[in-house]
Amino acid sequence: MANDTITGIEGILVGHAQIDGICSGCTVILPQGGAAAGVDIRGGAPGTYGTDTLNPINLVENINGLFFSGGSAFGLSCAEGLRDYLKERNEGFSTGHGNVPIVAGAIIFDLNINRTSIYPDARLALEACRAASSQTVWEGSVGAGSGATVAKLFGSAQCVKAGVGSSLVSGAAGLKVGALIVVNAFGEVYDPATGIKIAGSRSAPEGGDTIRALKKMSTFTEGFARQNTVVGAIATNAILNKVQLTKVAQMAHDGLARTVFPAHTQYDGDTLFALSRGSIEGVEVSLVGALAVIAVEQAILRGVRKARGLPGLPGLAD
Fold this sequence. Notes:
The chain is of the alpha+beta class. It has 5 helices and 18 strands. Helix 1 crosses helix 2 and helix 4 crosses helix 5. The chain starts with 11 loop residues before the first strand and ends in a 13-residue tail after the last helix.
């Protein structure tokens, strides 16, 4: 069976690890040999690591690894495990005094699901790195998506389980654009092909009509969930530089906005990275960005549809 996930792009490896008995985890993306990268942050409450490195005006062009983690800000410690793994393999930016691994990442807030005070850490990230492979990505309630939920406008008690989704879109002349998304949105999730809501608040005013309900609000409902985010990465086998990849990441957010409503709120940390790992030259950056929109849409839908529920918290895969 053909690989229809982000690892269908040669040189992209993905690994997951979860904390035993706890709904939180870590997901890593390892571009073999490094990859040019860009990032775009649209949410008002981001939790990120290493994103300044990817600013187009800054020195370093390539990164060696990405991580996504649960645990809110506590999960940022996963960066150390990822860096240690890469250091063991002598991967990184050459400084003249040894190679320094360049890593970046982002976290989701899953403390409403994981209330144990045990969070993803460097050890768990190292486990995810060791599990990384080019096989079809494991999707749903795994890795960083273990504690992911969506549809929290009317409170966490009304939300739906979500998780990690991945996709691959093929273009002309061998072009590929893939996405891996951790879906933990404040908003509800819609299929843009049909306009049908696939994951919404389970008990909501106005018969579940979110737009009608929003028009009657001056503030959000008491008890609504303030901590959310959709984070992920796009990868392509087109040769693009950091400036071009920043544009791809910007365009890719349209895929988020087409599937999640509302999106990019003050209560989301929506962050998308873009990686170039390949050999196809002369591809128009706007074409890659347009395919990235489709890849993000598909990855978000898969991340919701493949998520299994927890007691009292349904998932569509059930």
